[in-house]
Structure formats: C-alpha cells, structure tokens
Amino acid sequence: MPLVIAVVVFWLFFLLTVMLYQQLTHTSPRKSRRISEVLGSQPVPTVRERELKAPFYQRAIKPILGMWSQKLIKMLPAEKEAELGRRINYANLQSKIAPRELLVIKYLAGGLAAVLGALVGTSLVQQVQSIFILSLLGLLAGWYGPDFYLQVKGRQRQQAIEKSLPDVLDLLTVSVEAGLGFDGALLKVVEKSKGPLAEEFGLTLQEIRMGKPRAEALRDLSGRTGVHDLASFTGAVILADQLGLSIGNVLRLQAEQIRLKRRQRAEELAMKAPVKMLIPMVFFIFPAIFVVLLGPAVIQITKYFIK
Question: Which residues form a coiled coil (predicted)?
Fold first, then answer.
C-alpha cells in the first residue's frame, strides 16, 4: 500500500505540473488571432535573419568597398565623381554602387588584371618585354573594363527607353484626354506598362508624392536617363504647365515628333546598312566566290604550263 500511494501521488503531482505549465504557456485563440492580425501569420524575422537574407554583395563586398572608398576620397575630383555618378545612373545601378566604390573596383580590377597578365607572361614566354606588355594590357583592360560595362548597359537601357517612348506617350495622351490629370495618367502608364521607362515614371511619381515639385521631378527624370527625346518631352510638359497650355495637345504633338524621329533614325540605319555590308562581302564572300569561279581555270592554266 505505501508503494501504491507513492505512485499515485507521483502521477498526480506530474499531471498537475503539466496542466500548470500548459495553462501558463497557452495562448487563447482570441489572443492568437489578434497577434496574427497585428504581426501577420509569418513570424517576424530577427536582425540577423534579415542580414543573412541579403545578397552576398550587400553583406560582404559593399562594406569593404565603402571602407576603401573613404580612403580614396581625396583622389577623386568632384567633376570625375559627378561623371561616374551620371554613368551609374544611366545604367540604373545607383542603388548598388556609388561612384567612389566604382573607383575602388577599377583600382582592384586593374591591379588584379596586371598581376594576371604578368603571371601568364611568365609561364608562357618568359621574356621581360612580353611580361611588361601583358601586364600593361591587363592593367588597361581592368581599368577600362568597368567603364565599358557601364557604357554598354546604359546604352541598352537608353535604347529601350527610346523604343517605348512613343507608345507610352500615346497612352499618356489617351489618359489625359479621357479626363485624368497628368499625375493620374503617369500612374496609369506605370500600371499598364513594363520596362525601364515605366520604372522611371514610377520613381518620378514617388518623388512628386513626397513633396518634390513636378518640374524638378521631371528634370531629374531626364537627367537620370540621358535620353534626348525624353528630355525634350519633359521640357515641353514643364513649359506647358508653367504657361497653362493644354497638356493633351502637347502630349499629342510630342508623340508625333518622337515617332517622326524614330522613323528618321530607322531610315538612317537602313542607309548605313549597305556600307557596313561591304566589309564582310569584300573579306569573306568575294574571296569564296573567286575561288569557286576562278579555281577550275587556275587549275587548267597551271596544268598547261606544267606540261
């Protein structure tokens, strides 16, 4: 009997402990529902989890570039920094890299490429002049490589903006003539269109909503892209807004002019095509034709002279 009593007391004490623990840690459904409404169904990530979810470039490389850029700040003039910033804006990389960080990348790329060229020259030719030439070529490639990448990427983005600008202006014109304001028409373009021009219009709308004047936001739009047609469009809209002219008529005229310019550029490219085709024709197509046409005659002539 003492053993049975001890076992019963032990289990009763265990059950009471479990019930008390559940009562203390249990959250009522009402509280759980309220917490889910406030915080959401997903748990709130910690600071470390948010840092680990960031890309490797943001976590590891960008802090190092920022540290070195602070040391190289005196070596970068203000004019050069503004030029690098303009190239970065044209390529739409302003959120990923700063002009000073780009300068650090150019130094590192030039140094690494020069060392790589020296190693290649040492392993292949083993001559001082060849090693120096390969190192110099590697230095130039590493220094001008980032600039070339920014130029290519920025030019591709500008061409995409130029290509989509007439259609976007048509949509703006239709929206304004339907009764929307200019800001509402821009919002409609952002909702219905895709591409770099729609992204730039969305950023311009955000700046206007944050309190920036419309004229200043449109000037910043043309400055970020570097597209001449877009600059003329923003200038016309700013002038019409200042003079109180009809935005719909201005947009229609701008769309017609930009379509005319695009047609003229296409005709210009078509006129240049025959001239560009001469190089592959002269060096690749004509020699093959000459071999096919004159080859048998040359063979016959050589046989005649050999006899």
Answer: none
